[in-house]
TrEMBL record:
GO biological process: isopentenyl diphosphate biosynthetic process, methylerythritol 4-phosphate pathway
Keywords: Isoprene biosynthesis, Nucleotidyltransferase, Transferase
Organism expressing this protein natively: Jeotgalibacillus proteolyticus
Gene name per UniProt: ispD
Class in the EC hierarchy, top level: transferase
Catalytic activity: 2-C-methyl-D-erythritol 4-phosphate + CTP + H(+) = 4-CDP-2-C-methyl-D-erythritol + diphosphate
Family: Belongs to the IspD/TarI cytidylyltransferase family. IspD subfamily.
One Pfam family named in its UniProt record: IspD
Record site: Positions MEP for the nucleophilic attack: R151, K207
The name this protein goes by in its record: 2-C-methyl-D-erythritol 4-phosphate cytidylyltransferase
Length: 229
């Protein structure tokens, strides 16, 4: 199942505290964004990469695409103030019948999950990568436990999130009209009443958000070197 991927990469990485877009930080001698892009560059099912960027990063990113021979980027669009706007700007360039959205800050996604997501999106309309919650989750109010939430129904939602193009475009247009803001793409699709299938992914598929995530990133790469993928 062929697909295009939208990669939002226009954030500022404030929680990482590096004073610049965290996606340029090197992990294992390669910028985070290069790790992410190479996964899709090397996936034969990926027809094109639509990259949302901060205009200030354009020349550095163009240099990286050249240096790492990344040829599938078909659009470099300006991102917006929030992730949702960045994704929407890039989605407007999409043409394939299946489109996925994947955070530039999740460099450890692997091809089997991508394939499963593309297939489920084709069949069901929408699919998200996720892993079951391992900890006990409680709802807290004013410093006291209000409720322990049944863990069996709780999943941590990741990207990629894959959709039929018609559904994700409608979801983004309706969200814009209604002023609806979600923290992921699927929540916009849920908002228009469409179903979203969950695909069990990998705990390695972390989003590099804060400084300690860089240590986890090195550990994941060391594990892969030692034991394979
Ligand atoms: N206006 C924005 C904000 C975020 N992103 C992208 O969305 C992904 C997930 O966002 P997050 O991890 O929150 O990144 P930042 O927004 O950069 O981080 P922070 O919130 O700490 O500033 C990242 O690949 C980021 O580059 C984007 O394209 N446009
Ligand atoms: C889309 C996402 O990766 C789902 O986990 C996440 O919500 C993106 O950014 P956030 O700023 O950390 O919520």
């Amino acid at each position: 199942m062929k697909y295009e991927v939208v990669i939002p990469a226009a954030g500022q990485g404030k929680r990482m505290g590096a004073g610049r877009n965290k996606l340029f930080i090197e992990v294992d001698n390669k910028p985070i964004i290069v790790h992410t892009l190479l996964v899709f560059e090397q996936d034969p099912l990926c027809q094109g990469i639509l990259l949302a960027i901060n205009p200030d990063d354009r020349s550095e990113l163009t240099g990286l695409l050249k240096a790492y021979q990344i040829k599938k980027v078909t659009a470099l669009v300006d991102g917006g103030r929030e992730r949702q706007q960045s994704v929407h700007n890039a989605l407007k360039q999409a043409q394939a019948s299946i489109v996925m959205v994947h955070d530039g800050a999740r460099p450890f996604i692997q091809q089997p999950t991508i394939l499963e997501l593309a297939q489920q999106a084709h069949k069901m309309g929408g699919a998200v990568a996720a892993v079951p919650v391992k900890d006990t989750i409680k709802k807290i109010r004013d410093g006291f436990v209000e409720e322990t939430i049944e863990r069996a129904s709780l999943w941590l939602i990741q990207t990629p999130q894959a959709f039929r193009l018609s559904i994700i475009m409608k979801a983004y247009e309706e969200a814009q009209k209604a002023g609806f803001e979600g923290t992921d793409d699927a929540s916009l699709v849920e908002h228009i009443g469409e179903k979203v299938q969950v695909v069990e992914a990998d705990y390695d598929n972390i989003k590099l958000t804060t400084k300690e995530d860089l240590i986890f990133a090195e550990a994941i790469l060391a594990k892969r070197r030692k034991y394979g993928q």
